[in-house]
Structures
1.
Amino acid sequence: QDGEMPTGSEHGDDGASTSSSESLVSLRSEEFPTYFGEHYGRLFHSHGNSPSAHYYILPVDGHELHRYNATHTLLRRVTGVTCDAPIAEALADAQERRRTVVDLCTGTGLWPMELARAFPYAAIRALDRVPIATRYPAPNVRFELADVVAAPLRFADASVDVVHARNTHMTPAAYARLLSEAARVLRPGGLFIAGEWGEYPAL
């Protein structure tokens, strides 16, 4: 597993200026155990002082990761596509700038990895509070540690082409805040994609 977390300057290395004075540095291997705690034989996110401690209640161990990946695969088989949205239009290749995608609460990172293969020219940034994504991402994917509950997204206003948020209903303290942040960072005409499980998948 590999991850990144905010610390210091004005621009991320994807060229999008941040909304604060933060940049990214790699999370060291010895730091990973501090993000987890064992309870009743299952591994959970330790949360620390994060407000998300009150909202994300599922384990983050191998059994849960297999379940998460299985639901992703099931949804893809039901819809027949990686993303049931006009994402090709939003990410149409252009010379003037690189297209940017932000995946909120990325989990194991399957969605951004699949998207990266379809759109190799897009910069894909996958955010989550828990470092459980692959340590070998595609060249155009970067996994970042970020608490979408406790802090604003690091991206500048009107700097992102697509924001994707799936299986987030147990994470954000207030979904309205997540929507507000998505609207802030999206460029005019940008695309917001939401997907949640209820009695049936709602996209």
Note: The first strand starts at residue 4 and ends at 6.
2.
Amino acid sequence: LQGQTPDTKRRREGDTLSVQCPYPAGISDWQTKYWCRRVDQTCQELAWTYDRYRRESEDGKITMEGDTTNKTVSITMTDLKAEDSGTYFCAFKNYNGYGQLRTISLNVFKAHIPGVFQGPSSTQPRSQAPSLSGGNTFLILSVVLLILLVLALIASVTLYVRHYKLLGRTGNREAEDTSDRAEGTAQPGSTGRRGSSQDDSKGPAYFNLDMQSHPSAEDPLYCNVEPSQAHRNPQNVEYAVIAFSQSPRNGRD
């Protein structure tokens, strides 16, 4: 076989290869043309044709058809497999054996199956697999942290609402107890009303006494102060002295 620089063709498994092989005017249309696979520097005949006839190989995967107008031979190989990789050529027979028209170097590689995870191969950069794993780990951790944050926020709001309700109930009870104690501090024979300019915990408390009879200057006057109403710091206790002046009796001063 005469040496000839091959044309390189790359295909995936399952693809189709189409080749056009022109032949010179000195070769008759009726002369048989072959599609060969080079094996040990010889021609392994796969298909053949002449003139305009369309011929197929025994397995039906290779088709050859002549075009006498353009003086070419068309070869089609279907359903390629990885084992189909090799060197092919168009040829015709002469007194020296086979005359090559065109040589093809075919490389058929396996196709990746979509949706199936495959580990790093020789054609895939090894740095991609760790980066994908690290990205998935970061995504999972982010989702877990977000869920924990939402749960913590819900727990905080629940505790705050419970604490607020508890404070409201405690305040109402203290107000009722204070009102009950204040009603028992008035002196017999008089009516007393307890009042405050502000809340008991923020301002001084006082009593308004309505005397039923006019007291004399010698009559004592006092009031009870509940311990809860008295200031804890003695320095802040306020004292008051109440005195009654005698009104004129029978025109005397």
Note: Confidence is low (pLDDT under 50) at residues 121-130, 184-199.
3.
Amino acid sequence: PDVIIEAQFDDNDAEHGQDHLQDTLTDDIKKLSLDTGEKGKAAGVTGVYRTKQDDGPKVNDPRLLLDEFLQRTAKVVYILEKKHSRAATGFIKLLADRNSELFKRCAMFSPVDHRVPRVYVPLADCPPDFVTKPETYSQMLFICRIVDWKEDSNFASGQLCKSLGQAGEIEPESEGILTEYGVDFSDFSPEVLECLPQNLPWVIAPEELAKRRDLR
């Protein structure tokens, strides 16, 4: 295992396939082993042969190894804070296996952001005619929020929150981005609006302008 053999791979090797390459490597290793053994006998050396890359004896008990040879491992025991909003923009489509029980209960949500996993969403959250006319919603953007992801499942579980509109239009795309990043873009409350000047049109007072730098 400490010896690396660099083999020449050309078109002839490609024609004979991987088996030919494997046989070539096996023959080279046998020749190298025989050469090494003969050299050792000629020099009168017997015992354990060690290459330059060997730093010490082979041990199976990791407790006998030095710290520099160990790879530290760990596991997550608790999530202190969820940074992601668990919301994603994407498309819904029917499951591929139409004969499965899951097909009757769930649809597949595919996020636009490929860093987010695909999500099973209940058919009850989908439009009423989605099962009969799935092509109608192939370019429709939806917002989905992930609620769970079981350890034994390749896909997360979630709920459809709302339909945004056609993909490629500015308003649906913008609303999807803001929702994903948890930005509150709802209308200001009356309490907030009361903090604004009520006498319109409002102008900056001259004394205020005098102590400010005009960047208009």
Note: Confidence is low (pLDDT under 50) at residues 5-15, 45-49.
4.
Amino acid sequence: WHRRGCLLGLQVLAYNRHTYETVAQLLLITIVPAPGGEPPYQGEFLVGNRNVEELLPVAAQEMFLQATAGVWEQDDLHVINVTSALDRGGRVPLPIEGRKEGVYVKVGSWGGLSPCLASATSPQSRFRCSLGQQPLASCYDTFAPHFAIRWCNLTLLQVWPSPTSPGPVWGSGVLEEEGDFQPPTEVPPRDLLPGYLVTLLVPLLVAVLLCLLLGHLMCCRREGV
């Protein structure tokens, strides 16, 4: 840790999906807490026609935020996280028709959620999704045609800052003169003999019974005896 944040070293291992060539690079990332903290209103969208590397550039994220502003009705949106759908249990797409892996994009805002997003996650919309239908939406889809949003996978969150508990109060380290030091109460001795006998005798008794049963079957159950 230093004065302005945390310096993190991250080794990235990438591969070419066509030639399977790999390359490693060490990135030094400075993590600085957001000035206003984490935004309380967050929404996570599943983009079905994109791979994760296509939404990492700043220009692609700006385009996505402009499309999000059309349905969120807020102007302070920013991207919190970009995650591949493969990391959420998604399947690797078939290498046909240009199919994509899918990307989860989490967007945050300090303003409230729009009625359009609320209607898309309403119980009626969830019921339509369970029937394989499109959810209800009270606004025009501004993501099309650049981003294909899977509206049935839309997740809305309201994150409120948790109250911080006061830290420990450190004393001077010197015992006060009043009173004497009282050591902790001694633990009374425990009798471990019954437990030891049960642990030892029960398996021994079972082994003896098994030996008697096996001897009876092999010796007394023979033909002619």
Note: The CA atoms of residues 177 and 222 lie 86 Å apart.
